[in-house]
Write a structure and sequence with these properties.
6 strands; binds magnesium ion; binds 6-O-phosphono-beta-D-glucopyranose; alpha/beta
């Protein structure tokens, strides 16, 4: 294992919930639409525009808004979201993550971020982790979003490591598909059944350890 390529929202910090809160607020205010809790999983890992399209489709509203209106709605959601992430501090790093990053680094493993979020650099800054990662892949520069492998491949490339020498880390179904499409070993946090495509799924980030990552990687490459 030469590199670990991390998703950010829901893996390093619990911002996945803020995304869904912001979308829920927008959907209620703008479309009088109640998003069921079960809808959150569909929105994880996919871009801002794709998320809005999924919501409009769910509400049978897809043809009702012009391109410009869609852009304005996406911006509005982002304003709600940024309001929430503005309050982040290093206390909001999920349990087990700081030690995991330290231990990976101590073992010579490069660290990259492969998030679909354009807010990733801002969040890393807020968490005090901007200088801990060796690279942050830019989602604006990749052709296709998750479940396509592009952003994970960009993360591996940015730290100069071949994809098959990387472990990818995710909480989203689309993200696990992206890791596997990139030919990386996938470690996931969340629901075992939903994320079954991963090589290892744990219930919380507290279960993430250097040993676990290294064991899963070695088992896969045996
Ligand atoms: C991903 C989230 O990390 O980033 C998605 O899982 C989100 O829910 C996507 O839509 C894009 O984020 P942003 O901050 O660019 O709107
Ligand atoms: Mg995520």
């Amino acid at each position: 294992m030469q590199a670990a390529v991390f998703d950010l929202d829901g893996v390093v910090t619990d911002t996945a919930k803020f995304h869904f809160q912001a979308w829920s607020k927008l959907a209620k205010e703008e479309f009088n639409l109640d998003l069921p809790a079960s809808f959150e999983t569909n929105l994880k890992g996919i871009s801002r525009t794709e998320s809005l399209e999924a919501i409009l489709k769910f509400g049978d509203l897809l043809d009702k808004y012009s391109k410009e209106e869609v852009q304005n709605l996406a911006n509005k959601k982002n304003d709600y979201y940024v309001e929430a992430i503005n309050k982040l501090t290093k206390e909001d790093i999920l349990p087990g993550i700081s030690k995991l990053l330290t231990d990976l680094k101590a073992n010579g493993v490069k660290l990259a971020v492969a998030s679909a979020s354009k807010n990733a650099p801002f969040i890393l800054e807020k968490l005090g982790l901007a200088h801990v990662f060796d690279a942050v892949a830019d989602p604006a520069k990749v052709k296709a979003g998750k479940p396509a492998p592009d952003i994970f491949l960009a993360g591996a490339k940015a730290v100069g490591v071949a994809p098959n020498q990387c472990v990818g880390v995710e909480d989203a179904v689309a993200g696990v598909s992206a890791i596997k499409a990139a030919d990386m070993v996938a470690v996931a946090v969340g629901d075992k059944n939903e994320l079954r495509q991963a090589d290892c799924v744990v219930p919380t980030t507290r279960n993430f350890t250097y040993q676990l990552f290294s064991d899963v990687f070695d088992r896969y490459h045996k």
